[in-house]
Amino acid sequence: MLRNGVIGEIYNIGAGNEEPNRFLTDSILEILGFDDSMIEYVEDRLGHDRRYSIDTTKARSLGWAPKRDFREALEATVAWYSDNRWWWEPLRKKQG
């Protein structure tokens, strides 16, 4: 995209997974060694999205493809946040 993309165009980056939001929550809990008792259920809001799906066609047309599968990338992301609490803890404390 840097070399062949068009200035001003939007290129969605994603792995092409279309999983429900709950699947992501359950996967993160599993990686961290927790069960779903950690989930606090709340009433759905109007317009609640059950999943988010993006069209990566334009990025892929330029030769882009994910380097990791979903689970591998999620595990790496969870590990990064676990190893870098110094980065996000102050943000959480600001919100009270």
Walk me through what this model shows.
- With 96 residues, this protein is mainly α.
- It has a domain at 21-52 and 66-93.
- The chain is built from 4 helices and no strands.
- The protein has helices at 21-32, 57-61, 70-83, 85-94.
- The longest helix is centred in the C-terminal third of the chain and has 14 residues, at 70-83.
- The model has no long low-confidence stretch (mean pLDDT 90).
The share of residues in extended strands comes to under 5%
Number of strands: 0
Count of DSSP-assigned helices: 4
Instruction: Report the order of strands and helices.
Output: HHHH
Largest sheet: none
pLDDT < 50 runs, ≥5 residues: none
Give me the secondary-structure category. mainly alpha
Please tell me what the overall shape is: extended
State the helicity in percent bands: 40-55%
CA radius of gyration is 17 Å
Distance between the termini: 39 Å
InterPro entries: NAD(P)-bd_dom_sf (IPR036291)
Structural key phrases:
96 residues; mainly alpha; extended; NAD(P)-bd_dom_sf
In a nutshell, what does this entry contain?
This protein is mostly helical. Helix content is 43%, strand content 0%.
Write the layout of secondary structure elements.
Blueprint: H1 21-32, H2 57-61, H3 70-83, H4 85-94
Helix pairs in contact: 1-3
